[in-house]
Write a structure and sequence with these properties.
Length: 272
């Protein structure tokens, strides 16, 4: 299916019956070829953590139930699921009777696994079971106040530079912005970079992050671009890149890519 066929950017009738066919997969392959990865192997571990805040269904007897979900899509999946199609799909549960929370979880996991081509895990949480939000994770240094002699808004990996000193540090910027490739709507994120290697020039890193401001791409693609640019130009011994995006349509997407399999997306942030 071509992206032009996706529901994103189109007027949509919200479904009143469960329909897994609403899910619209978008292959990852084309973007990975665009950033120079065309051999079917990827230089990272990672996943896309979705937080879905508007989930409801009917309990036996017809009384509604509500929950929020953590959805984890492996970065090795052949496809991502287009976000508006996921929203429409989740809304198709609203008037459907399920026998238990576990059944809802299993149905969502099965349908998303089928659409993405890999095993997707789903955890449903009570709305009384909120995760504490933080401004930025402990230990991360904010680089947003670095002084820049010049700023550009066209994607510019040449802004990245390092010194010869090997360090281990964690850097954070709240200034990552990109635009939806279909609708042009802005997507806002905090980017978290944890690395060991030649020290990154912080002003250059900030200039590079700001250069995404007019870039049109999906969240997952932006993070993979960040990761591959940092690996290619800075050659760190260890690298983890995570972007925590603000929610749109009741969903936020938080991709992370790392040289280490045990890294994760980290805690929920204030803007989420």
């Amino acid at each position: 299916m071509a992206l032009i066929d996706a529901p994103l950017g189109k007027s949509s009738d919200y479904p009143d019956a469960y329909d897994p066919q609403l899910l619209f997969p978008v292959p990852r392959e084309e973007n990975r070829r665009r950033i120079g990865l065309d051999d079917g192997r990827w230089p990272w571990f990672g996943e896309d953590l979705w937080q879905a805040w508007e989930i409801s269904w009917l309990r036996p007897g017809g009384v509604p139930a509500v929950a929020w979900a953590e959805i984890r899509v492996p970065s090795a999946s052949p496809a991502i699921v287009e976000s508006k199609s996921l929203k429409l799909y989740l809304n198709s549960l609203n008037q459907t009777v399920f026998s238990s929370v576990e059944q809802v979880r299993d149905v969502i996991s099965r349908d998303l696994s089928s659409a993405s081509g890999a095993s997707v895990s789903v955890d449903l949480h009570s709305v009384d079971q909120g995760a504490r939000a933080v401004g930025r994770p402990e230990g991360f240094v904010l680089i947003d106040d670095e002084e820049l002699a010049s700023v550009g808004y066209d994607y510019n990996p040449d802004a990245l530079a390092t010194s010869g000193d090997v360090v281990s540090e964690k850097l954070c910027s709240h200034l990552l912005k990109s635009n939806c490739p279909v609708t042009g709507q802005p997507d806002w994120a905090t980017v978290l970079i944890d690395y060991t290697g030649s020290q990154l020039d912080r002003a250059g890193l900030l200039r590079y992050i700001v250069s995404f401001r007019q870039k049109q791409d999906f969240h997952e693609h932006c993070v993979e671009t960040l990761f591959t640019d940092l690996m290619a130009r800075c050659q760190p011994q260890h690298l983890s890149v995570c972007a925590r995006y603000t929610r749109r349509g009741g969903l936020d997407i938080n991709p992370w890519r790392s040289t280490q399999p045990e890294d994760a997306a980290g805690p929920r942030l204030i803007r989420q």
